[in-house]
Amino acid sequence: MWSLLGKKAQVSIILVAGLLSAWSIDAVYALALHKEAGLLKTLSLAVTIVGTILVAVAEAGWRWLWRQVPLLGRKAFPDLNGKWDGTLRSTWINPETGQPIDPIPTRITVRQRLFSTSVTLKTGESESHSTRCILERLPEIGRFRIWYSYNNDPIAQVRHRSSPHEGVAYLEFDPDASPDALVGRYYTARKTTGDIEVTRGTRD
């Protein structure tokens, strides 16, 4: 959810948190030496303690809150945690046959936290792990996207024809049209692309 905030908001929050933390350290140091910490530093220490507790509670309990208040999934971002099963359809053409390859059975695992998101994609021949994820709201069309970059690591038996590579992809969620489906597209450093279609299996 952190990535939904604008850069200015993120920077402002980091600066304020850093300033409060510095004052809080000064307050702890003063109290340890049995000195007067001052009202501002004492308040900073209290705000830091309360803020840390609230962040920990929010990190642990946001999914419960999302289940109790479904509107949050539409106004902020939906809970997409879990395993999603389906297929990849590559645009790659086999030079020996001149035909595209068959759809590839695929499992995608989304691990979504309050401050981070990761995507793992696994097929019979390789596994991809996200290196960075960005959440995007598309309120004008009522959809949500996870954009991510990834590293792909094929199994040893196929590396003679499928080398490790990097790529970018997105997964799009439309709660009105398909509340249990993700569709998307990927682009690889090998100059190939493909479509992703998966449906929700289990929620983690």
Automatic annotation (TrEMBL):
Keyword terms, alphabetized: Membrane, Transmembrane, Transmembrane helix
InterPro entries in UniProt: Cap15
Start and end residues of each CD-NTase-associated protein domain: 77-200
Pfam families cross-referenced by the UniProt entry: Cap15_CD_rec
Domain of life assignment: Bacteria
Segments traversing the membrane: 12-31, 43-65
The UniProt record lists the keyword Transmembrane: yes
Protein's recorded name: CD-NTase-associated protein 15 domain-containing protein
Upper classification of the organism: Bacteria, Pseudomonadati, Pseudomonadota, Alphaproteobacteria, Sphingomonadales
